[in-house]
Amino acid sequence: MEVHRYGAKPLTPEQEVIFEQYRQKLHQRALHGGLTSDEVRRIVVAMKANPDVSSEILQVVFDEVEKLAPGQRLLSFEPD
């Protein structure tokens, strides 16, 4: 995936695989009844619990959420 943020680096192939897993979850939720903030929070909590998920992957997932639900502030992008 190409990343278009200042100073951001493209995801590695390993990060791409992890991102794609979460991307699919987001799209499935969006297709089956919409993407609520609670659903996004649950996915993000699961991601943060995964030691293989980097801040780059989190940001790309947040970008994907913005594409699926434009203009909606579903959650804070601040790290815990």
How does this structure look, described?
With 80 residues, the protein is an all-alpha fold. It has a domain at 13-24 and 34-68. It is 57% helix and 0% strand. The chain has 3 helices and no strands. The chain has helices at residues 13-31, 37-49, 55-68. It is globular. The termini are far apart. Mean pLDDT is 77; it is low at 75-80.
Helix content, binned percent: 55-70%
- Supply the number of helical segments: 3
Instruction: Specify the structural class.
Output: mainly alpha
Uncertain runs? 75-80
Dominant shape: globular
Largest sheet: none
Q: Could you give the order of the helices and strands?
A: HHH
Number of strands: 0
Q: How much is the average pLDDT? A: 77
Report Rg. 12 Å
Give the terminus-to-terminus CA distance. 25 Å
Strand content: under 5%
Question: Keyphrases for this structure?
Answer:
80 residues, mainly alpha, 57% helix, 0% strand, globular, disordered C terminus
